[in-house]
């Protein structure tokens, strides 16, 4: 047995380095292309009952064939890793398949590429993590659950559900978890992102349902060419930091045709994002669609060519928002908000260059600049406790070249108390191209910087 394993291992190593031999070996393997590899780690005896009709192809790797139990309790992490390795190293596009009718419990895991060719991660069943911080091993304090790393070309899709089981994480308070008796515990700062794509490219995520993430539902950082399509993302309005889709240092992104309700931004665009098209999103209850926050800890942030269009934002704290910290560097420019329906939104249009959630920030002269932002065809109702438009720009790096056209915002019918209708403007330059409701009379003309241009860090 031992010798046999050694022999197989040598064959495997040889195969890794000599693809031609691998091809030959596979052609003798009668359609079980992953046989030589999987033998080494675990001898799966594919049980016929788990093979569903459309999950049969030679390059489909059903996690149940790799030992996944799918009872929602057993730890299926190893089976997923084996299925991933098989799919990733398949000769042709491999599919990791998660069958329906089961709940698979997976620990925090990184699925690493590069893979041989384009990969499909097909979730028809349910995937969830261990239930809450007490059942997460302390060693997995990595603030992330499922990570896809260094993948070039992957489709994630399916009719299934990704359930982040965030309820117990949301309840953690900073107070009760601050090192009681020096005992290590996972605290609110450790809340994991549900799905992270990192340093990957040519990704498509389509049709999945995902709910109750402990933190962001999706995070893409350092990625290129990302297409997100027809997702349903759902968490309670009071779940903290449960952004739907957060992107950072990521370029050429489409986020289309999705329905998101959660306790933070539906989509948030962080530093280093270019060429982003967000379209046909139904967002709310939530905190709206945001660019930012940018420039915290005096960091440099560049964001450009972002379009948000054909969307509905309802029962949300904000509609379309740009938020930057004081003291940052860099620029947000070329942003288009077009054709957005607002339904009872507290701040439908907002730029805040004084972003400071703790309310305890001192004024600084540097700021991430905001320019070339256009708002067109933005209509609907706002919760009149706040002004319908708020442009709070920096004293030294004002907002420049804002354009408004066809903006019509009315107080929501049930608005109570003092109704605020006047837009708020501070140091904002721009033009109103068509008459707006309410009138915006507070935009300044021209483009003024009080900092010397050489002190402003453009991008
Ligand atoms: C979270 O806290 C709320 C209020 O204290 C409580 O009602 C709820 O049951 C808790 N949820 C979980 C999953 O612990
Ligand atoms: C984005 O890229 C910049 C510059 O390479 C880096 O300093 C920053 O840490 C990155 N941010 C993230 C979240 O990866
Ligand atoms: C917008 O997205 C919704 C939800 O996915 C979809 O049903 C609808 O067909 C999309 N509309 C267009 C014009 O694509
Ligand atoms: C702006 O982004 C869109 C994708 O949203 C892209 O098609 C277009 O080429 C970009 N424009 C520039 C100047 O890069
Ligand atoms: C910071 O500047 C703004 C705008 O000039 C001003 O309204 C605010 O009072 C200042 N805050 C502090 C803490 O000085
Ligand atoms: C103002 O921004 C618009 C796009 O929103 C752009 O077409 C125009 O050239 C800009 N004008 C200046 C003076 O920068
Ligand atoms: C605003 O847009 C105009 C026209 O495209 C461009 O010349 C200018 O550099 C842009 N301003 C910034 C700060 O990006």
UniProtKB/TrEMBL annotation:
- Show which residues constitute the signal peptide: 1-23
Where along the chain is the active site annotated?
A: 287
Q: Which InterPro entries match?
A: Glyco_hydro_28, PbH1, Pectin_lyas_fold, Pectin_lyase_fold/virulence
* Location relative to the cell: Secreted, Cell wall
GO molecular function annotations of the record:
polygalacturonase activity
PROSITE patterns per record: POLYGALACTURONASE (PS00502)
PANTHER family cross-referenced by the UniProt entry: PTHR31375
Q: Which family does it belong to?
A: Belongs to the glycosyl hydrolase 28 family.
Protein name, as recorded: Polygalacturonase
Give the species. Glycine max
What taxonomic ancestry is recorded? Eukaryota, Viridiplantae, Streptophyta, Embryophyta, Tracheophyta
């Amino acid at each position: 047995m031992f010798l046999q394993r050694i022999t197989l291992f040598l064959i495997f190593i040889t195969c890794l380095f000599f693809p031609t031999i691998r091809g030959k070996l596979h052609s003798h393997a009668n359609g079980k292309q992953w046989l030589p590899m999987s033998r080494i780690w675990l001898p799966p005896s594919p049980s016929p009952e788990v093979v569903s009709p459309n999950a049969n192809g030679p390059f489909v790797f059903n996690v149940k064939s790799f030992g996944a139990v799918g009872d929602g309790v057993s730890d299926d992490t190893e089976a997923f890793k084996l299925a991933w390795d098989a799919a990733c190293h398949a000769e042709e596009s491999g599919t990791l398949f998660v069958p329906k009718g089961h709940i698979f419990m997976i620990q925090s895991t990184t699925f690493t590429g590069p893979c041989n060719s384009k990969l499909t991660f097909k979730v028809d069943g349910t995937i969830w993590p261990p239930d809450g911080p007490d059942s997460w091993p302390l060693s997995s304090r990595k603030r992330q659950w499922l990570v896809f790393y260094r993948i070039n070309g992957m489709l994630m899709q399916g009719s299934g559900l990704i359930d982040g089981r965030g309820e117990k994480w949301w309840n953690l308070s900073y107070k009760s978890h601050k090192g009681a008796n020096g005992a290590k515990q996972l605290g609110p700062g450790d809340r994991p992102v549900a799905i992270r794509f990192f340093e990957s490219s040519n990704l498509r995520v389509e049709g999945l349902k995902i709910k109750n993430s402990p933190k962001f539902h999706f995070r893409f950082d350092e990625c290129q060419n990302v297409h997100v399509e027809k997702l349903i993302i759902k968490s309670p309005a009071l779940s903290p930091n449960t952004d739907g889709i957060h992107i950072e240092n990521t370029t050429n992104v489409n986020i289309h045709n999705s329905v998101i309700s959660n306790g933070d931004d539906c989509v948030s665009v962080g530093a280093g994002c270019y060429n982003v098209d967000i379209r046909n999103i139904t967002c709310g209850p939530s905190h709206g669609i945001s660019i930012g926050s940018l420039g915290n800890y005096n960091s440099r942030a560049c964001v450009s060519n972002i379009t948000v269009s054909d969307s509905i934002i309802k029962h949300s704290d904000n509609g379309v928002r740009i938020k930057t910290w004081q003291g940052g560097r860099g620029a947000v420019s070329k942003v288009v908000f077009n054709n957005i329906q607002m339904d009872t939104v507290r701040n439908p249009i907002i730029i805040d260059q004084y972003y400071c959630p703790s309310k305890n920030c001192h004024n600084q002269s540097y700021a991430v600049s905001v320019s070339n932002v256009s708002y067109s065809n933005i209509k609907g109702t706002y919760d009149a406790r706040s002004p319908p438009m708020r442009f709070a720009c920096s004293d030294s790096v004002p907002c420049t070249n804002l354009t408004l056209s066809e903006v019509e915002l009315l107080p929501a019918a049930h608005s109570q108390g003092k109704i605020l209708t006047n837009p708020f403007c501070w140091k904002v330059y721009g033009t109103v191209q068509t008459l707006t409701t309410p009138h915006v009379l507070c935009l300044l003309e021209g483009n003024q910087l009080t900092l010397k241009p050489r002190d402003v860090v453009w991008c």
